Amino acid sequence: MTDQLFYVWITLTGLFVGSFLNVVIYRYPYEEVTVSNPRRSRCPKCQHQLAWYENVPLVSWTLQRGRCRHCAAPVPWRYPLVEGLTAGLWLLAAVHAGGVAHWPLVLVHVLVLSGLVVATFVDIDCLEIPDSVSIGGMVVGPLLCLAVPEVHRDSWVARELAGAGPVGPMHALTASLAGLAVGWGVLFVIGWLGARAFGKEAMGFGDVKLLGAGGAFVGPGGVVLALMAASVLASIAGLLNMARFYALIRGRARRRGVAKPLGKALARARALGRYIPFGPYLAVGIGIALLYWNDVASRLL
Ligand SMILES: [Zn+2]
Hints:
By secondary structure, the chain is mostly helical. 70% of the residues lie in helices and 0% in strands. It has helices at 3-27, 59-63, 78-97, 103-126, 131-147, 156-162, 169-198, 205-256, 262-273, 279-291, 296-300.
């Protein structure tokens, strides 16, 4: 297979997997359904069972202009977003790995990226990260790295251990376990200190497990990078969120004709805007470390 054909194939596969991830994300909070039961998706409004042609990734949503064909209930744009995002990430992973010759590495990367997509959207919806992704990643991570040492071809620890030669299974396994320990440990300590300092849970345990799982794939250097990227992104998002609440509070006060004191509005906006899930930012950080800057530690040292 040529690389071009491989890229087309992986993008299309990513689209259909993205469609499947939508089901995983949507059904996660419901106890009575699983991913395979019921087999076919229904419109949540009119219960109409979707035919295959109403379920084609991106295409159906576009042709139906984002509405159910039967009751015209709006279908959230998040569905095509997750499909497009997954397809884009799969293509990125394939190109980054170096094409079809590196298919085992591509396989590991698309698996990790798909898990991160699920973790992101479930965390946004339910403020929790599925254990199947976080604990699952911690369990299969080291095993996959043992099988595909190339995953750690840029990891600092693995490179140091390998010396001039290629990264072997034992080097990759060591980097994976070190990454897992550092990822899990760093957030666990931050959470523990935060809980002692503020008397409440500062860091969700789901985040601890997610960074542990990510660490297994990006190594200890990648973990530090992922955490830094996540912190910067979450701070920016937190500030924007506070600004949004601040504008809301001030606007409402103005409409009512009462002058809300500036300081009071700010304090309220801070309290409301602080609660944003950290998981999505961690997931983006891990993704960046996985595909692009895993070698940042070796470059710096
Ligand atoms: Zn409907």
